[in-house]
Amino acid sequence: MSEHVVVDVLKAVGLFFLNPVWLVAIFAAVGLGYFRVKNERRSFHVRLHPGLTELKRVIKESWLPALLLSLVVSGVGLTVDVGWLVLLSGIAIVTMLTFYYQVASPIYATAFAFFGLVAVQQFVGEITVRGWSLTSIDFMSEIAITIPVIAGLLLMVEGFLVGTAAHYASPFLTKTKRGLRAAAFKTKRLWLLPVIFLVPGDFLTAFTPYWPQFTVGATEFSFIPVPIIIGFSQVARASFPDDLLPKMGRVIIWIGVLVAAVGVLAWWMPIMGWVALVIGVVGRAALSIVVAVRERHGGFVGAPQSTGVMIAGILPDSPGEKLGLVPGECIRTVNGIQVSNEKELYDAIQVNAAHCRLQVIGRDGEVRLMQQVLYRHDHHRLGLLVVR
Fold this sequence. Notes:
This is PDZ domain-containing protein. By secondary structure, the chain is an alpha+beta fold.
């Protein structure tokens, strides 16, 4: 008997890691890195971060929020329907394959999966798969509470992740209305959260008879680990990413708090769960639209300056990063020489190949002096990506 238990548990774990969502997420993360590097090389002839950065961070940044979310969802006893989980995973796969991450917020997937099941039940009727029946779902009962609350929690996690995503914003050059080239910044991220959900019924026993279950009253429950996808895409040109994204993250968190709070009201009035999901979708979409319009019609913060050379990006571990330079600052002089373009910047650096002195105009307009010792292995242009 024990051998059967071990085999079934290993089989279930294997099936979990072979979940199509995992496989598509790996493909999508590699694709994100490839296209980012391609765009950076097109603008600056060099990439900012290695091409596998997105793949390495797809779980690294999200495993702790996923653990906390799993503890809350399972600990409080927020049960979900297995059909909803399947539809949620299908929506995630389609979203990742399109690479259109403006609609990859978890509120869209959770709400569309919920209302998708409602529509199928209404217009199709009976669907039965290995003991699971669509007609057995009551969308005006417990599921109307748990899914909105889970959607709100996922929005809070999204807000936290978005607020910390500015460090990996990718600069690129684009034309202004006056025909000049200016820097803009694109943040396109994908996070995968292995979340453990609590599912009522014995659906898993059809596949793995020895999968752990527990019983409360007359109802059996199973813990099912499911990969949840959170995607984000935003172009910043009227604001710097380290100013814009933390603000967006805070707003997303508050939308999540509102969705979860309204979802709790469904305990007394089930229709409020439906309202909570609609509030989440409308609020998240409104935020994306407002930010996109504001960034599209605002001026370029990375526009070229007559006073010096505008910094668009800094390579990691380069002399520029050690100097504390940040995108949006303007280099006025190098080693006492006035510079106005990339060639003059490079020539001025070579005046003193062992020691570099910069006069920099900060984002706030303040002028400061900086200096850095240069070593043989250091980047010959301080590791700076500049507007040219």
